[in-house]
Specification:
The chain contains six helices and 14 strands. It is an alpha+beta fold and 267 residues long. The chain has a three-stranded antiparallel beta sheet with strand order 1-2-3, with helices on one face. Strands 4-5-6 form a three-stranded antiparallel beta sheet. Strand 2 and strand 3 form a beta hairpin. Helix 1 packs parallel to helix 2.
Length: 267
């Protein structure tokens, strides 16, 4: 058997070949291949990549590479930075890139390295997800951004790069369900809205906390009146239970909502 190649069989008896390489006492799997020659090609190419610093990430499309681009990234990162990471991450100073293609990558703070070295990112419909505890989790949730949040309205990338997920680059504009920050007469106010038969304005408030609690109050009223929608609740962690209930009791909401007849259709 050629160096770096191991013979194997699938459960149905089909023959295949595994390839791996050891570098700096780290055993690295390179994948499975239909022939011994292809597996050996992967082994020799990986050896060249680990020792030839003239080969860089952008060179991937210039060669017929016998393994995936993700493996290409992990090998080059191991060569250059001395850390083997299973996901396609390349380390920089105080941040790292997570690659999909040579010209397509996301940027993260180094504080997120532990998480993304163990969670692969997938894309679907323009959204970015990881598999976490058996669920597909939108990576925006790590920043406190809600699933239905709209970029530019509820949050923004400060430098304009929507692939730069460093914490200092993400500004949360609207933290709570149904709460929108608007500017009026050179000052900021918070408008609470809720969906019944259309979008209804609950009221305008001086603080986002009041607006968030007003949304909760309006949701409770609508549910009581037969609007059986799944209104998500706003959780205000900085308030004690007594502080929350005091605001809830005193915050005013639209009389249009308060005066709805039970199960009445909005006109």
């Amino acid at each position: 058997m050629l160096p770096g190649v191991y013979h194997a069989r699938k459960k149905d008896g089909t023959e295949y070949f595994r390839s791996s390489i050891t570098h700096k006492n780290k055993h690295i799997s390179l994948g499975s291949f239909p022939t011994e020659g292809e597996a050996y090609c992967a082994y020799t190419f990986a050896g060249q990549l680990l020792h030839n610093r003239t080969l860089v990430l952008e060179d991937y499309g210039r060669y017929t590479v016998p393994f995936s681009f993700a493996k290409w990234v992990t090998l080059i990162n191991f060569r250059d930075n001395g850390m083997y990471i299973k996901t396609p991450i390349y380390l920089k100073k105080n941040f790292f890139h997570y690659y999909f293609d040579p010209d397509d990558f996301l940027t993260f703070d180094i504080d997120d390295l532990f998480y993304y070295s163990r969670h692969s990112i997938s894309r679907r419909g323009g959204h970015l997800f990881v598999a976490d505890y058996g669920m597909q989790v939108n990576i925006l949730s790590r920043y406190g951004i809600r699933n239905y949040a709209v970029a530019g309205r509820d949050f923004r990338f400060i430098n304009g790069d929507n692939k730069d997920f460093r914490y200092a680059n993400i500004e949360i504009i609207n933290r709570f369900y149904g709460v929108f920050c608007i500017q009026k007469n050179n000052s900021l106010i918070y408008e609470a809205r809720i969906h019944g038969n259309g979008d209804w304005i609950i009221g305008r408030y001086k603080t986002e906390t009041e607006a968030a609690i007003a949304y909760n109050k309006a949701a409770s009223v609508l549910i009581t009146k037969g609007y059986h929608k799944e209104y998500p609740a706003n959780y205000i962690e900085e308030l004690s239970a007594s502080e929350y209930h005091e605001i809830y009791k005193n915050v005013t909401i639209s009389s249009r909502i308060m005066n709805l007849t039970p199960r009445q259709e909005h006109r």
